[in-house]
């Protein structure tokens, strides 16, 4: 931890008190230098989180003191107590969104929403299948799919606490939870092999940061607003989380890198 002087508040800048920020795999990869998006050093880590506006510059038009905000894009550096940031880099979210839900809104739920919206024209009654279903994205896919009337088949790795994990995913709205070992059975492998050849199954990569680069801020704001409405209706909750004081960041980073981790580490700032 370092104590730094805050820069002066510029014409279109906003002074933020950060409240909570998660530790995501992308954050670790950025620190390791292996991620596709790297911040110029020295840098503050953290790609998402939630903060509260303390003060605004005279040119700020859409934010006011007391507003809750999340980053509009990756690479903002959220693992800190305070920040002075340009208004255009921030999105306002409703103040009644639960803290941990707001802190984890900008990456995993957005990725899940785009994956369910952009690649196929899904309708109520359709089904999707996903692996890593206990991940942050996976938990969001289950809940958003449920809200859209879409059935979800969720694949997880076998583990000692499998019954508890299955119970938790079913409680989120999963229709089926199966293990990777079950998918390796010969009859299951043949089903997917045939589907890939005869049913035009396609393989596509998706990166939320790239989507943001290709769309304007209003598109991001509209999606976040839709997700916030789901939260307010009780259709979308935060992933399983463990809240940790910022001073214990070393332990939190280590815990986030353990295998079979289903609880996201959240730094309280």
Automatic annotation (TrEMBL):
One MF term in the entry's GO annotations: enoyl-[acyl-carrier-protein] reductase (NADPH) activity
Protein's recorded name: Enoyl-[acyl-carrier-protein] reductase, mitochondrial
CDD domains: ETR
Top-level taxon of the source organism: Eukaryota
Family: Belongs to the zinc-containing alcohol dehydrogenase family. Quinone oxidoreductase subfamily.
Pfam families: ADH_N
Gene source species: Bambusicola thoracicus
Localization per Swiss-Prot or TrEMBL: Mitochondrion
InterPro entries, sorted: ADH-like_N, ER, GroES-like_sf, Mito_Enoyl-ACP_Reductase, NAD(P)-bd_dom_sf
EC code: 1.3.1.104
Enoyl reductase (ER) domain location: 1-267
Keyword Acetylation carried by entry: yes
Single GO BP term: fatty acid biosynthetic process
Keyword set, alphabetical order: Acetylation, Fatty acid biosynthesis, Fatty acid metabolism, Lipid biosynthesis, Lipid metabolism, Mitochondrion, NADP, Oxidoreductase, Transit peptide
